Protein: tRNA dimethylallyltransferase
Organism: Chryseobacterium camelliae
Amino acid sequence: MKSVKILSDRYNNEREQMKNLISVVGPTGSGKTRLAIDLAKYLGTEIVSCDSRQFFREMKIGTAAPSEQELAEAVHHFIGNLSIQEYYSIGQYEHDAVQKLQELFLSQDTVILVGGSMMYEKAVLEGLNDLPEANDENQKKLQAILENEGIIKLQEILKDLDPVYFEVVDIHNHRRLLRAIDVIWQTQTKYSDLISVSQGSRDFNVIRIGIEAPREALYERINKRVDIMMENGLLEEAKGLEDFRHLTALNTVGYSELFKYFDGEWDLDFAVSEIKKNSRRYAKRQLTWYRKADDIYYLPLGYGPNDFESLILHIKSLMK
């Protein structure tokens, strides 16, 4: 009986000591940054970013990174911590983010995770699958297709092989396309099936929060945000990065369109309209991804004090 009591006490202590990770998710332009800061201030904790574009310090405007004022409201991690010239994989991020959480959990019972990079959130919450290393022969073949037929051909190949992953991947990021197609060719298995298998739960309790946005309202916010980016100097920021346009970090919405303007392919108005269109498309992919989850508590777009109070009650009911 004494041994049973010891085990029971140990179990209860472990339950009491379990930490909480609140993951704030949602499409671009929905207000995740503000919500994460509000939660961090209320709970007296810190924020870990899983927005893969905001890691790079040279891309503040085009990635809508938190402002200096926002950064001053709550401690953030993984914002502007890298240079675009540094290689940084999702595997490296998983290791660094989990290590940072372990550090923070020494003094905090709850930490906030925020970002719209779906696979990066998944890496933190569940861990990455053991996928094969890149196959040189496949990579050479795919690189030749990219150079001779363009990224649209890679998009077509991936859509045919794995329409589910095609719906959520950043189709403008050729490295993501190359990687997925390579893995599919090697394993004869859809990439979406491979990454959907959880590698086991973490030793912290996860509470997922989202912002529900009607599509028309969200698209209007995205369009307005692009206009604000241009007013804040996105054109100048992209011009200063033109020499690095070959780097993976810059092969993304907001920069690739302006590079075409610099090349004389597009006029500026059309380039800006393409940034808006591609941003809306990315938001649609994010919505598709999150819609499949059944563990996200949603706040309305532009939530008010009553909504926030209800959120806090929900969070407290799920805390370990």
Q: What stands out?
A: The radius of gyration is 21 Å. The chain has 15 helices and six strands. The chain has two domains: 11-129+197-318, 136-195.
